[in-house]
Amino acid sequence: MDQKWRGATTHVPGEFVHRSDPTDIFPTGWTRLAENRFSVTARWPAAHPFFSPVAGDLHDPVLVAETIRQATMLVAHAELGVPLDEQFVMWSLGYTVDPEALAVGGRSSEVTVDLLCSDVVRRGSSVRGMRADLVLTRDGRPLATGSALTRCTSALAYRRIRGERLAALGRPVPLIPGVAPQLVGRENSKDVVLGAGARPGQWQLRINTAHSTLFRRPNDHVPGMVLLEAARQAATLTTGSSTFLPAVMESSFTRYAELDSPCWIEPQIVRTADPSTTTVLVTGRQDGSEVFRSVLSSPACGLAVTGGGLRSRLAG
């Protein structure tokens, strides 16, 4: 291996992953393997204020999405030269995870992420967008695959794009009543991101800007991770199953979700030919336009349904 691609760190600065609380920083180091390929090490906590274990003793699958987000940002800042003051916009994010590989007890908390950057768009020397494809392993065993499409926007361009919307930065947002935590697979009401909607089958996005994990810093729009959590909670609510485990999630984002206008979350169960999974399509709409959509699939009978199919896809 060419020596110039060697080098690793055992400390990841919070600004590289856009997190300030050390408990929310999952990557622990990285190594450049080739020009556009990297290995990122991460540590998943056995307990976390938000990403707590689910279904008894399983890591939260949405940890995969957050690990994808943080690993992509880390590589972009640390290795691709993206300035720390630039804004990231995820156009899409998806993953497939082996549920049986999520067990918390008796296994290492260390996760290795193999990350390949492609379709890198540059303007001069600046990276303006890229695709990241990732393979996550744990104890040498395939854990998940994932991908993300991201765009990087300079601070000046972002101010121009957002304009007067930047006035919402740090502005208090009224906290609407949330649904009962147990209906969305949560134990604490502060983690609930859904409130009553205007009609049956619809819920309003509940924005809690004081939530230290979902709103890691003052923002002028709703962070993408809040929308992913809304999708998961809506899927849990509409299936009526507190054991809904989003082993597969594919999400796309079409515009910013604003803080000052209701965002309506609308889930619907998707009928598929596969009886071993339950699939839900969740869309978010604001001011008459679609903001995002997510398709989530869960083993229909919990872990009684083998994860072998997932493992074969991951291994292949």
UniProtKB/TrEMBL annotation:
InterPro entries named in the record: AfsA-like, AfsA_hotdog_dom
Domain of life: Bacteria
Domain A-factor biosynthesis hotdog: 16-152, 183-276
Descriptive protein name: ScbA/BarX family gamma-butyrolactone biosynthesis protein
